[in-house]
Design goal:
alpha/beta; 7-stranded parallel β-sheet; 17 helices; globular; binds uridine-diphosphate-N-acetylglucosamine
């Protein structure tokens, strides 16, 4: 395929938006011809639209509108639509981020059309192939031409899988660019006031992984921990749509609502969420990005998973892995909440300048 068209930047799901926004702005400033493509994997106003507003992203140039489905049907729908786009626009480069189904689907398509691919957040590995994201990461990295890693462990993983050193670029963590960009502005958010919260006197919980919310025993065990933790500290729980759906189906939603300290609410936008976490005392989560954001904000994080593809947040950050056993969660909570991380040094290149480093690599790669 001829290599004269625009760069296509792909987003699909909530955690993609903050990874693309700083790069989009940087490439725009450099006058690079680019198209923003949204697969529509996430489509709810609160899972998608509000993030475009908070991050200053323009309306997508191309919207595939694929929506939800099983892994196969969602991936397949994105592939069919994205192939047509690639044939029409003949992009010189496709940029994918993270590890969601949209990342994998667009990588497969571009690769078969011999279009160059850059993967932002390359090289992360949890070692757990039961996670759909791990499969997405492995396949994407095996096909991408330009591998942009957030931390040195990413370089090591890629080298050990046989990738050549010349394809791997340690550029740092682009999510942190977005975090720094919004941090000051997040002080204008009214979310704390609207929930009657006081800085440093509440925790935040997010869960959505299949391992925690598709299994009734695991989900129940987390709720039991919440019942104990909620006695001593208010916990704000912005619930992910799939978590809410499962909680209703498993008859657990009323039990969550009845815990006195738990404040259940819908998903929030990025501005409000950064405001919530940056003023919190502790975060409990199974998200990937939140492990990184809490490390930069120096807020204790308890990760309700047995593994992480972001080990640097444990070795050099505020993160602690505990799985989903009730007693483990409660004991880690008691231990972590008294920790003081203020003197901690954040990982290298998690400094707000990653988009510029990525743009340098990309410009060189498409010349
Ligand atoms: C996806 C990513 C996950 C990421 C997460 C962040 C994959 C495999 N998973 O998981 O890595 O951490 O996004 O949110 O790509 N739904 C809505 N409205 C929406 C989107 C989803 O109601 O806007 C509901 C639907 O019931 C859908 C379910 O959530 O079936 C799951 O959505 P999906 O995009 O398949 O995966 P996530 O769990 O969101």
């Amino acid at each position: 395929m001829s290599e004269c068209g625009p760069i296509i930047l792909v987003v699909g799901a909530r955690p993609n938006f903050m990874k693309i926004a700083p790069l989009y702005a940087e490439l725009k400033e450099r006058g690079v011809e680019q198209l923003l493509l949204h697969t529509g994997q996430h489509y709810d106003e609160k899972m998608s639209k509000v993030f475009f507003e908070d991050l200053g992203l323009p309306q997508p140039d191309i919207f595939l509108g694929v929506g939800s489905g099983t892994h196969a049907s969602q991936t397949a729908r994105i592939m069919v639509e994205f192939e047509t786009v690639c044939i029409q626009y003949k992009p010189r480069l496709v940029v994918v981020v993270g590890d969601v189904n949209s990342t994998l689907a667009c990588t497969l398509v571009a690769s078969k059309l011999h279009i160059k691919i850059a993967h932002v957040e390359a090289g992360l590995r949890s070692g757990d192939k039961r996670m759909p994201e791990e499969i997405n990461r492995i396949v994407t990295d095996s096909l991408a031409d330009i591998l942009l890693t957030p931390s040195i462990d990413g370089n090591e993983n890629l080298l050990s899988e046989g990738r050549s050193e010349k394809d791997i670029h340690f550029v740092g963590n682009i999510m942190i660019d977005s975090l720094y960009n919004i941090l000051e502005r997040s002080a204008n958010s009214e979310i704390l006031e609207s929930l009657s919260l006081t800085e440093g006197e509440y925790g935040v919980l997010t869960i959505h992984r299949p391992s925690n919310v598709d299994d009734v025993d695991a989900f129940t065990s987390i709720i039991e921990a919440l019942e104990v933790i909620g006695e001593g500290l208010d916990i704000v729980f912005p619930i992910h749509p799939r978590t809410k759906k499962n909680a209703i189906e498993m008859n657990l939603i009323e039990r969550i609502k009845s815990i006195p300290g738990v404040m259940l609410m819908g998903p929030t936008g990025y501005l409000d969420f950064v405001s919530l976490i940056s003023s919190s005392r502790i975060v409990l989560t199974d998200s990937g990005g939140l492990q990184e954001e809490t490390t930069v904000l120096k807020i204790p994080c308890i990760t309700l998973r047995n593994n992480t593809e972001r080990p640097i947040t444990v070795s050099d950050g505020t993160n602690r892995l505990v799985g989903n056993d009730k007693d483990e969660i409660v004991s880690a909570f008691k231990d972590s909440i008294i920790k003081d991380y203020r003197d901690m040094v954040v990982p290298q290149y998690w400094d707000g300048n990653t988009a510029a480093r990525i743009a340098d690599v990309i410009m060189e790669g498409i010349e």
